[in-house]
Design brief:
Blueprint (H helix, E strand, L loop, with lengths): L13 E5 L4 H12 L3 E6 L2 H8 L5 E5 L5 H11 L2 E6 L14 H24 L1 E10 L12 H20 L5 E8 L5 H14 L3 H9 L10 H11 L11 E4 L5
Parallel strand pairs: 1-2, 1-4, 2-3, 4-5, 5-6, 6-7
Length: 253
């Protein structure tokens, strides 16, 4: 994890990051805390949140399901005013569309799109002047991938939501943007690798090579690269960046 931001630029900022127990969310939490912010991380399981929080005293865990409207309302009411809200929580499953049942479709839309809606809505209601709203989408919000239709649909929805909210809030002292990483070296991707191994008989190295091949640079994106973009978007020199879906993909999109 890396952080080149001047600590004074984040000192005293109050940050909320959903899905902060692992992967990109955990990397962001530590970087923002090291930059001087007070960070609240959320997730559905206590153990990963506690493990992330143990790395810095300014990280505070809260077990909250982003799809639970009442819980999200209560979270933000308890926090009061905030400066930065990052809707990062997400989930992925794979399979052909013809075998996707309605329950799976709805479950993936709930966490990947409705959870972002609730996070941004409550964040907006409690955002201080000069605040920042970010949604972690994906290159799956900018293009299609086979066998992950519900995920792609949800991430396209996130990008549309961000663009619509940017138009609503144009002229206000805030920004809202989407981060669109390509395949990133996280536990979520590791789970996808394991699924490919189980279903196809390929080796883990072969499965990882499949994901690496989508990046023209021939590698996975690093969480720290996504975090660095988030820090910049939340800094003092990015006020004109509004309503953008920023691809972090080595040129894939």
């Amino acid at each position: 994890m890396s952080n080149d931001m001047n600590e004074s630029e984040m000192q005293g900022k109050r940050v909320v990051i959903t899905g902060g127990g692992s992967g990109i969310g955990a990397d962001m939490a530590l970087a923002f805390a090291r930059a001087g912010a007070v960070v609240t991380i959320t997730g559905r399981r206590d153990a990963p949140l506690a493990a992330t929080a143990a790395h810095h005293p300014s990280i505070h865990p809260a077990v909250v399901d982003v799809t639970d409207e009442a819980a999200m309302v209560a979270l933000f009411e308890g926090l009061g005013e905030v400066d930065i809200v990052i809707a990062n929580a997400g989930a992925a499953e794979s399979g052909p569309l013809a075998r996707t049942d309605l329950e799976q479709w709805q479950r993936l839309l709930d966490v990947n799109l409705t959870g972002v809606f609730l996070t941004l809505r409550e964040g907006l209601r409690h955002l201080r002047d000069g605040g920042r709203l970010l949604a972690v989408a994906s290159t799956a919000g900018l293009k299609g991938y086979a066998y992950v239709a519900p995920y792609c649909a949800a991430k396209h929805g996130v990008v549309g939501l961000v663009r619509a909210l940017a138009q609503e809030t144009a002229g206000r002292d805030l920004t809202v943007n989407a981060l669109c990483p390509g395949f990133t070296d996280t536990p979520l991707l590791a789970a996808s690798v394991a699924t490919i191994v189980e279903r196809t008989g390929r080796s883990a190295d072969q499965a990882r090579a499949h994901f690496q091949s989508t990046n023209p640079a021939g590698r996975l994106i690093r969480p720290a690269e996504v975090t660095a973009t988030a820090l910049w978007l939340c800094g003092p020199h990015s006020g004109a960046i509004h309503g953008q879906a920023i691809s972090i993909s080595g040129g894939e999109t």
